[in-house]
């Protein structure tokens, strides 16, 4: 029998490949169909957020936060305004807090819907994508009604929000919750427990808890590995400490916790928990002027702060430095998607090339935030 030797081949996956979820280039080193290494290359979608922030006023920074994780813009607004308000010593009223929580959790659901819909496409299932976007459109309708935008919102301002909820809006939110809750069973019947989907995702791309922590992973990627950590509970901000909800962690459908299926499943159950939070925040909504604490000119006292919040992708951190001027001295962003993507090489070695698609999709990355 002749000695058959194969050479290591480098293959570019992306940055135009649809399954890289944006302009991500992954260099695969392969031995036949086996992946020896997967090296992500970023930098194709610069947002220049941090440099913009040094050249505009404090309030003008907010539209640029929208454009990082453009699938969860409300959550991006949230972390920034909370940080600036703490530096300024501003405490907003209960109505503002509840509107912020409602919109942030609606945006979490919308983001997770895109994650599960596009993940189905990655694996070869087209129908879940249509179902997910059907429900997401209803959330975007609610956003359009309250602030006039469907993707980039500029809704949460330092000291308040840009618009109060119009008449009947809160009831529409509760009606959506009633409509949406039963739909999660449809997703489970259609995709979560589909035999082919399970075979493609269970025991694939296993991320042990210690590796996830050492790489700085957060959000569903970390919790899927069995780590019980959610900033809304472990380091509460806004009024999240007033609400009753559960932290969702990986279960290990086939005995292995932290695989692609777990990362998908955590997002499914998190949508149920977001509905719980929304119902609580929308009940007994108090009256109040949502703009009463918005300063005419935002001038932040000299100082610095690190403010972190729980976005759909994990811990989004704003390190904010003020020199006492009308313009920020420095704003540095800690991107959860950036840290989650960094673990890709560690969980990709020794797998099949086709499984790379499943792993990247399970990390739910957004390149606008990674490149920020």
Summary, kept brief:
With 372 residues, this protein is an alpha+beta fold.
Q: How many beta-strand runs?
A: 8
What is the CATH level 1 assignment? Answer: Mainly Alpha
As residue ranges, the low-confidence spans are: none
Can you tell me the overall shape?
globular
- End-to-end span in angstroms? 54 Å
Q: Provide the domain count.
A: 1
Please trace the helix and strand order, writing H or E for each element: EEEHHHHHEEHHHHHHHEEEHHHH
CATH superfamily: Cytochrome-c3 Hydrogenase, chain B
Task: Summarize the SSE layout with pairings.
Blueprint: E1 9-13, E2 25-31, E3 34-41, H1 49-53, H2 62-66, H3 73-88, H4 94-123, H5 127-147, E4 156-157, E5 160-161, H6 169-180, H7 183-192, H8 195-201, H9 209-214, H10 220-223, H11 231-234, H12 260-282, E6 303-311, E7 314-322, E8 330-334, H13 336-342, H14 344-348, H15 353-363, H16 367-371
Antiparallel strand pairs: 1-2, 2-3, 4-5, 6-7, 7-8
Helix pairs in contact: 3-4, 4-5, 4-12, 4-15, 5-6, 6-12, 7-12, 12-15
Report on the structure:
With 372 residues, the chain is an alpha+beta fold. The protein has a single domain, classed as Cytochrome-c3 Hydrogenase, chain B. The chain has 16 helices and 8 strands. The chain has a 3-stranded antiparallel β-sheet. It has a 3-stranded antiparallel β-sheet with strand order 6-7-8. Strands 4-5 form a two-stranded antiparallel sheet. A hairpin with a 2-residue loop joins strand 6 and strand 7. Helix 6 packs antiparallel against helix 12. It is globular. The N and C termini lie far apart (54 Å).
